[in-house]
Structures are given as structure tokens and as C-alpha cells.
Amino acid sequence: MDSIPTIFGNINPNPAMTSRERILAAINHERPDRIPCDFHGMDACNKALFARLGAHDYPSLMDRLGYDMIDIRGIVDPDWVAPFPKVRELGGGEFQDWLGFRRKRMQTAFGEITEHSDFVWKNAQTIADLADGETFTFPKVEWFDFSTMPGRLDPFAGRAVMASGASVFQHPTLVRGLDNVLCDLYEAPELVGHVSKLYTDFYLAYFDRMLSACAGKIDILRCADDFGTQQALLIKPEFFRQFFREPLKQLVDLAHSHGVKFMFHSCGSIRPLIRDLMEIGVDILDPIQPMAVDMNLADLKAEFGAEICFHGSVCTQSTLPDGTPEDVRREVFSRLELFRGEGGFILAPAHIVQPDVPVENIIALYDAAREFNAR
User: Fold this and answer.
1) Using CB atoms within 10 A of its CB, is residue 215 exposed (0-12), middle (13-18) or buried (19+)?
2) Which residues form the Uroporphyrinogen decarboxylase (URO-D) domain (predicted)?
3) CB atoms within 10 A of CB 43
């Protein structure tokens, strides 16, 4: 429906949507009352925002910044009921989590971060070498109790709620090592297929239970698999189609069977895969890394914008960490202008915001969105 011109400007045909309604309208290519926003920051970044804005919880942070959707991973998780700790300390700041990821805590000038430090299956030569052992037991859905999640989601009523954590490519690289997986594609394809299937099957069971337990309270399921580098794809499109397209489709189909939208995340230059992603039913493409080759938002909108919703696009490589608040405002306005009066876009940083981004620039992003949407 077109807006109605008056001497006072344009009357919006959909005033006062809830955040959830606004996000779903954008995903469905309907016109929202304003272009919706999202935010996701690392812990140190979030703590700085809480302190600066006087927010006491995530709903109040959402209100103060003015964003519409929340990734509940790490905020509202299923209860851990396995008879052993969720994280095993290895010494020297290194630890191994329940997914088999080995990471190390490190202090930076901006706060503590963790980085992957080793790979539990890096020396595997055959499928038999991947059997459960002392080093790593592959996760089981029975280790989790989902029954308390619905009640803990109540504070987010009226917001768009996203569950995340699924992966069919990246998580295998975090137990096997990226260099090994890239070689395996040529030399040991059975290992690639086996490890990917392990994670796919686990996430199908895990999120089926979560979405069933939280029926009507989760709106989006997100899968993250970085198939792109700054310049090009990390793997050949043929390998994506041979090993990873069908597992992704299984996750998409699971989400849709629960009435939930599906977001796919991949950093980098992934334009050659976008048509594949749309064909298997991906609803939202994230994060539209603007400095990567062939990922210009205007060009992507012209080619794919009628069939998929874009999420992200505000540069976390340059503008947010190194720009001024005015630089941020200018970039936000340029993104929003592309979708003025339309759906199909959710404004957000093009990556989880790291603690080197000044708080002033984060606030400037959402102030600019509010200013644009008020026009």
C-alpha cells in the first residue's frame, strides 16, 4: 500500500508495529512502519554499552538503542544437564567447550577476548579416528533440558527472537582445522562428509527440540558458515553443492516446519552462492560485508532483493572501529535510503561488534537509524 501524501508529509500505512511485526514484515518484503535494526556485540562491547546507557538487561538495552531483534544464544540457553562440566579448563587460559572447540582467553587493550587455539581432530586420518574418546565426546542432545526456555523468553515478548549456533561447514573446521578440511575436500572427502553430517544431525535434533519447546516464541533460526574470503569464495561452488548445500537445506526445512524463518550467515565474498541459498529457501542473508569483493548492497539488491531479505551491511572493518560518528551516520543513511518505503532489509553491523568499536559509534549507528526513520 502506498503512503498517502498530505500537507504534513507521508502517513505511514503501518504505524506502531511491534519489533517482531516489523522484522517479519521486512523479511516478508512487506512495508514495515520503519526499517528495522539489529545489534549483536561481544561481551566487553555489551558491558560498555550497559554502563554508558544505564541499561540493566537486554530488553532495556534494546529500548535505549532502538533495535528490534535479539540473538538469544548466551542469553537464554537450554539448561545443561550432562553429568560433567560444560567447559573443561586445560590450563594457561585455554579451555575446551562441549562442542569440542579449544580456545584461549586473552586480554587486549579493549577487554578480554577468546580465540581458537587448537583442533581436537587435527590428526585424524580416517573416520575411525573420530570415535569418541578421552579428548572429545561428540555432543548429544540429551545433555540439554529445553523446558525452562519458554518462561525465560517472556521478557522478550513483542521482540523478534533468533536462535543461533547451527553450522555445517565452519564447526567442522573448528575441530579439524581449516587447512585440513580444505585438503580433505580433495584428498579425504569421506572425512568432510562424515564430520559435517555429525554436526548437521546434532543441530537438527537440538533445534527441533528447542523450537518445539519454545513454539511461537522463536522467530528465526540462524546458521553461520563462513564460505567467503575478502576476495573470493573459500571453496569452489562445486564443493559447496556437493557437501554443504543439502545439509543446509535440511536445516532450512526444519525451521520452516516450525513456522520459523531462516537466516544464513557468511562473511566475505559469497555472491556466487546467493542463488543456491535462495533455491534452498534461505529467507535472510547476513551480514553483507561491504568491503568484500562483489558484496555492494545496491548491486545485491538489484539482482536478488526481490527474493531474499538482507541483514547487516554497516562496515565493521573500517567505519565502525575507525570512523567518526558522522562517518557512521553517513553510511547508515546510505543503506537506509536504498530501502526507503520498502521491506527486505534489516540494518545491522556487518559482524558481531568487537570491543575496539567506540561506544560513541555504536550509539551513532542507532541514532542515525532513528533520525532517518523519523523523516
Assistant:
1) exposed
2) 176-371
3) 13
> Collapsing DSSP states into helix, strand and coil, what is residue 22?
helix
For 55, the grid coordinates are 541499561
Are 356 and 41 in contact by the 8 Å Cβ rule? The answer is no
From residue 290, give the alpha-carbon distance in Å to each of 250, 299, 317, 362.
Answer: 29, 11, 9, 17
Residue 115: closest CA among 123, 128, 124, 105? 105
pLDDT digits (tens, 9 = 90+) for 280-322: 999 999 999 999 999 999 999 999 999 999 999 999 999 999 9
Domain spans, the chain: 4-81+145-374
Residues 59, 44 contacting (CB under 8 angstroms): no
CA proximity to 357, closest of 97, 11, 38, 46: 46
pLDDT tens by residue, 148-203: 999 999 999 999 999 999 999 999 999 999 999 999 999 999 999 999 999 999 99
Question: Is the pLDDT at 69 greater than 90, yes or no?
Answer: yes
Cα 269 to Cα 288: distance, rounded to the nearest angstrom: 9
The set of cell numbers assigned to 239 is 564443493
Place of cell 549483536: 40
- What is the per-residue pLDDT for 14? 53
Q: Is the pTM above the cut of 0.90?
A: yes
- Which parts of 8-120 are beta strand (E)? 9-11, 69-71, 79-80, 87-91, 94-97, 101-108, 111-119
Contacts of 168 (CB under 8 A, 6+ apart): 196, 199, 200, 203, 223, 225, 244, 247, 248, 251
Single-letter residue type at 349 = P
Q: What is the mean pLDDT of residues 231-245?
A: 98
CB 39 within 8 A of CB 351: no
C-alpha cell read off for 19: 519489533
